[in-house]
Amino acid sequence: MNKAKDRKNALDTLFSGGGMAGMVADATAPRPRLSSGAIGAAEINLIKDERDKLREELKTLNTQMATSDNVVELNTEQVQPSFVADRMEVAFDPAFEALKESIAETGQQVPILVRPAPDEDGIYQIAYGHRRWKACRALGKPVRGVIKPLSDEELLVAQGQENHERKDLSFIETCLFVFRLAQDYPQTLIVKAIGKDKSLVSKLRKLAATMPEEFLRVIGPAPKIGRPRWEEMASFFHDGALAKNHAKALSSLFALDSFNELHSDERFGEVLQVLQETPAELETTSDADSGEIAVSAHTRKARYSEWLGNKHVLVKHTGKATVFSVDSKTQSEFSAFLLKELPALISKFEDTKGEDA
């Protein structure tokens, strides 16, 4: 059985029967919580003041950490991630590759923050700096960090504040982080951790609960996709599940190798388009037809999709245009090089056309 078919069978299992709905039911099942307490209108200013204070403390800590004598080198095998995940893992992350290259060339400039792991001697748990830790681990280098005793709540607030000060998390990653925190911690802590008000925290939690996490992981963090489009995606789910035709069409889409080669933002666009173009009602079209809609929508929109170089340029042929994409953030030097060389390439092409004439 080939790779695509294996993946399709696994995804059919995910979408069939109680698979998707079951995952949501498991994820949203009541769990023991700390007492939350309501946040009254009179307390909003106090929360904002405390948030601002935390931000200032975080900035001060980061400044001190960069040159502090308390910075130590830690074996990456003795460091473990936070007990609440805040990021989605992706197969290829250009920003992470750029960070790894930077650390390889100039060293780790900003230490991570860790605490001694509860009940594990000699092990440290990350409050923030997960990507720096992973980069050092991949490079076989020790990671520079500051060790600070932190309670669970203090660790989560530091983790959330750092991520949102640096704007490192995408919208859907923030939703998932809020959803995970809400299983065990009060809303007051989540408000402090992400620096958002009570109303928005509630909306983020509900949106994450609408769609199964496994489904979200197939799409990935989608850093350029904001709240309105995620809300449109969520509108196709009812009681945590998709209509049978929608589930079948997405299973066919997810089984395509070309789909998995796309960036996360592009995968989001493909999925939303398939949901929009596939009739939800079973009697409207056959199961086979719904799968064909997924494949045809994908191939119509991106008939050819390939990388050139070491993922320097993504080339997409849509039938109407050929699009060359360069990530100007992670490939800024290459982008500038292309812009400089393009006039000469165009001139060379024009000369070739003149010779043909």
Automatic annotation (TrEMBL):
Entries under InterPro entries matching the protein: Chromosome_partition/occlusion (IPR050336), ParB/RepB/Spo0J (IPR004437), ParB/Sulfiredoxin_sf (IPR036086), ParB_N (IPR003115), Plasmid_partition_RepB (IPR017819), Plasmid_RepB (IPR011111), RepB_N (IPR037972)
Any one of the GO BP annotations: chromosome segregation
SUPFAM superfamilies with a match to the protein in the record: KorB DNA-binding domain-like, ParB/Sulfiredoxin
Top-level lineage group: Bacteria
SMART domains for this protein: ParB
Domain ParB-like N-terminal: 72-164
Keywords for the protein's UniProt record, in alphabetical order: Coiled coil
Residue ranges that the Swiss-Prot or TrEMBL entry lists as coiled coil: 44-71
GO molecular function, one term: DNA binding
Signal peptide: none
Pfam family, one: RepB
GO cellular component, one term: chromosome
PANTHER family attached to this UniProt entry: CHROMOSOME-PARTITIONING PROTEIN PARB-RELATED
Family per similarity comment: Belongs to the ParB family.
Name used for this protein in its record: Chromosome-partitioning protein ParB
Organism encoding this protein: Pseudovibrio axinellae
Record gene name: parB_3
